[in-house]
């Protein structure tokens, strides 16, 4: 009987480790999304500033240089937006880790109650 219990504990421990790994992946993805959003805001601000400068009465050489800079920033902004779209948390990518966390959090609470009742 103790062999079966040991196997169950090993399985539970493996599932808990998997849930922890999934949670870390979700946290990492969230961090990447936050960084991407900050980058996007900074690039959008730079883009707006350059567009305002281009509208000013400047020599054509300086305007051409500003337009090149604006094109580079626009390309970077597009890359950041594509990266954000690919990393955004959708329910489908979040559903499995969420339910595993709920499931094993509940198991943890039950184990805590059982251990406390056995010890008390």
What would you say this structure looks like, in words?
There is one protein chain. With 120 residues, the protein is an all-alpha fold. It has one domain (2-119). The protein contains three helices and no strands.
Helix/strand order: HHH
Q: Residue share in helices?
A: over 70%
Gyration radius (Cα, Å) is 26 Å
Morphology call: rod-shaped
Number of domains: 1
What structural class do the secondary elements suggest? mainly alpha
Distance between the termini: 25 Å
Which strand-content bin applies to the residues?
Answer: under 5%
Q: Largest beta sheet, briefly?
A: none
Taking all residues together, what is the mean pLDDT? Answer: 81
How many E strands?
0
Low-confidence stretches: none
How many individual helices? 3
Protein name: DUF2203 domain-containing protein
Coiled coil: 9-83
Keywords: Coiled coil
Q: What's the topology here?
A:
Elements: H1 2-55, H2 60-87, H3 91-119
Helix pairs in contact: 1-2, 1-3
In brief, what are we looking at here?
Residues 9-83 form a coiled coil. This protein is mainly alpha-helical and 120 residues long.
